[in-house]
Structure formats: structure tokens, C-alpha cells
């Protein structure tokens, strides 16, 4: 599989007039090599592919499982730059041109490549690998599906425990421990737990505020499994029947999330998905409280293309996994976020595949 991906890149570079490609962005290295040891770069050459590492790969699960067909070269001296070594290797191997990821290289690093290999014509690979990563194959989707199952398990167990009196930070740490207990490589991102006035805030960092009866409790978490990351967000009420304003706000966000999910069809414009969710909350009077986007792609990174936002250009393809995560936060009161990971599928295949299945009913815990 990884050899096929590198073959695609080799052919693409050859068609554009480049003899070799240097991939330095870690997520792209992992996509093409099976793993991404810290600092490693991948040289895709006309005859051989080489992973250059600043130190011997540890074999740690979080680094991935490197393709056994790939040659691995460890720099002989500490402190060396694998990208510079790769450019030198490309030149000595007879390449006259090299495509690089200019969006990932610093100016100083780009100059160093030209200095060590002055006969190489450097060109820009652009976001070619990121675009290739956008549509997932069924093996990738299977990893996302398992990551979602792990995430649902961890969240479900938390909902069965006593929550009143515990801090946001404590709950977040417990969720991350449960992810690992159920087989995750680790959390897909920093787990967010918000209570009371902190609930519903996007990216809220858990603090020492304790859960109180009557609070909204919003949780956003995700597991990483074999390098692939998913995301789920839910909001609950603690210990009592929800207040009228909580029910009204929750119903509005739930309706917006449902509209966004239903808009996930192959060929739909990214901004049309955002508009479907945004219009619901606009009509409910929450236009100003809605964030800058409705969702985003997921995969090796937790925030990938596409961006489901008002100004986003492009259309959805089949087998693109995305989040749909509208939310509203009312300052001083709290708010609601509902977040799912789904895979775009045609209507003939049942429509969008929902990976995160924890109930979206407004539960009183």
C-alpha cells in the first residue's frame, strides 16, 4: 500500500519534470512511509525511496509501523538535518531536480538545500500529498471506525460514573486514560471538558472548576488508532431536569447539526454544508454565537482538509471523513456543542456513515 502511494508521487513528479521528491511534513511522511519518526524526511527517488532519520527509530507505536520495503538511513552525526542530507543524496544519485514541500520548509532550510546540492533544480511540490490524503481508502476508514468505537466506549463509561463535585481537569484525564485502556495509541487531541459557564466553548482547556448540579457539561474527545484520529462532542445536563433555556438551546444546536449531517452528499460544496447548519442557528437567533466553521476533515491529522466554512471552495468526494460540530456558547451561562465524525457516502450506499454513535439525546446525568 505504501509503495503504491510512493509510486503515485514518483509518477506525478516525473510528469511535472522532477526526478525526485522530498517529503518533510510529518503527516505526509507517515502517509507514504507507514510511520514518521521525529525529524524524519522521505526521499522518493527515481529508483529507490529512502527514509532519512536524525536518530534510530524507536519502534514506538505512536511513530507508526514503517514500511519494510523502505530503506532507512540514520544520519551518522547528531545535529544533522535529514532534509539537507536527502538533497545531497538526491544529487549524488544523479537527480537533476527535486520537488520539495515549500509550505513546510523554512526559508533557512530551503537555502541550505540549495547550498548543499547546487546542481539540483528545486521546485514546489505544493499540497499534492495533502490532496491525495483527502479521500481515504477502506483500510484508512476501518482505522477511523475503530478509533470512533474506542472513543464511544470511553465516553459511555464516563457517563455511568458520578460526576458532581469532580473537576474538569480530572474528568479530562480520566477520559484520556480510558481511551488508552480500550486500545487507542493515545488521545487524538487535548480532551476538552467544560462545565457551567465554560460549557460549549470550542477548544476549552479543562480547568479546576467543579461540576455542579444544573450545569451543562460539554465534552469533546477523540482516539488515535494506528495513526488515524476521530472526534466526538456531546453536551449533557448534570443532576436535574434541564431548564427551559437549556432545552431550547440544545434543540437549536441539535437541529443545526442534523442539517449539516444531511448535507453531506458527494458533490456538495463545502460552504453549502456550513450554510445548512448555520442557517438553522441564524433563524434561532444565534448567528453571532456560531463559530467560524461547521466542521473539517480528519485522518492522520485531527484538522485536515476540507474545511466546512462559509468561504471554503471545493466539493465533497465519496470516502472523505469529516466532522460536523456546530456549537453555541452564551457568555456567563454556558452552551452546547454536538460533534460527530462521519464519512461521505452516496445515497445508494445509505448516505453519510456515522462513525461516532453515542446518543445525542439531552441526558440528565
UniProtKB/TrEMBL annotation:
Domain Creatinase N-terminal: residue ranges: 6-135
Origin superkingdom: Bacteria
Pfam families: Creatinase_N, Peptidase_M24
Peptidase M24 domain boundaries: 143-345
InterPro entries reported for this sequence: Creatin/AminoP/Spt16_N, Creatinase/aminopeptidase-like, Creatinase_N, Pept_M24, Peptidase_M24B
Region described as Disordered: 189-208
Descriptive protein name: Peptidase
Lineage: Bacteria, Bacillati, Actinomycetota, Actinomycetes, Kitasatosporales
Amino acid at each position: 500500500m505504501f509503495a503504491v502511494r510512493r509510486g503515485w508521487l514518483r509518477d506525478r513528479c516525473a510528469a511535472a519534470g522532477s526526478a525526485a521528491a522530498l517529503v518533510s511534513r510529518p503527516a505526509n511522511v507517515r502517509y507514504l512511509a507507514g510511520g514518521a519518526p521525529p525529524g524524519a524526511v522521505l526521499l522518493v527517488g527515481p529508483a529507490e525511496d529512502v527514509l532519512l532519520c536524525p536518530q534510530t527509530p524507536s519502534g514506538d507505536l505512536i511513530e507508526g509501523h514503517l514500511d519494510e520495503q523502505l530503506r532507512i538511513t540514520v544520519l551518522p552525526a547528531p545535529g544533522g538535518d535529514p532534509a539537507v542530507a536527502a538533497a545531497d543524496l538526491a544529487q549524488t544519485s544523479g537527480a537533476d531536480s527535486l520537488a520539495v514541500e515549500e509550505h513546510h520548509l523554512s526559508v533557512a532550510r530551503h537555502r541550505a538545500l540549495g547550498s548543499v546540492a547546487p546542481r539540483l533544480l528545486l521546485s514546489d511540490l505544493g499540497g499534492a500529498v495533502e490532496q491525495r490524503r483527502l479521500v481515504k481508502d477502506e483500510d484508512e476508514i476501518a482505522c477511523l471506525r475503530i478509533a470512533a468505537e474506542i472513543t464511544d466506549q470511553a465516553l459511555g463509561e464516563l457517563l455511568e460514573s458520578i460526576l458532581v463535585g469532580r473537576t474538569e481537569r480530572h474528568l479530562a484525564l480520566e477520559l484520556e486514560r480510558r481511551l488508552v485502556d480500550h486500545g487507542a495509541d493515545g488521545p487524538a487531541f487535548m480532551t476538552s471538558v467544560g462545565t457551567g459557564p465554560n460549557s460549549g466553548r470550542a477548544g476549552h482547556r479543562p480547568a479546576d472548576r467543579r461540576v455542579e448540579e444544573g450545569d451543562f457539561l460539554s465534552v469533546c474527545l477523540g482516539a488515535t488508532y494506528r495513526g488515524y484520529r476521530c472526534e466526538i462532542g456531546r453536551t449533557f445536563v448534570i443532576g436535574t431536569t434541564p431548564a427551559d433555556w437549556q432545552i431550547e438551546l440544545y434543540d437549536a444546536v441539535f437541529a443545526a447539526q442534523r442539517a449539516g449531517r444531511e448535507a453531506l452528499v458527494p458533490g456538495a460544496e463545502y460552504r453549502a454544508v456550513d450554510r445548512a447548519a448555520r442557517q438553522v442557528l441564524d433563524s434561532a437567533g444565534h448567528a453571532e454565537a456560531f463559530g467560524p466553521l461547521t466542521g473539517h476533515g480528519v485522518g492522520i491529522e485531527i484538522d485536515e482538509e476540507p474545511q466546512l466554512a462559509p468561504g471554503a471552495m471545493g466539493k465533497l468526494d465519496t470516502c472523505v471523513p469529516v466532522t460536523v460540530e456546530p456549537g453555541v456558547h452564551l457568555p456567563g451561562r454556558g452552551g452546547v456543542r454536538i460533534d460527530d465524525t462521519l464519512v461521505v457516502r452516496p445515497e445508494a450506499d445509505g448516505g453519510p456513515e456515522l462513525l461516532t454513535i453515542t446518543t445525542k439525546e439531552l441526558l440528565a446525568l
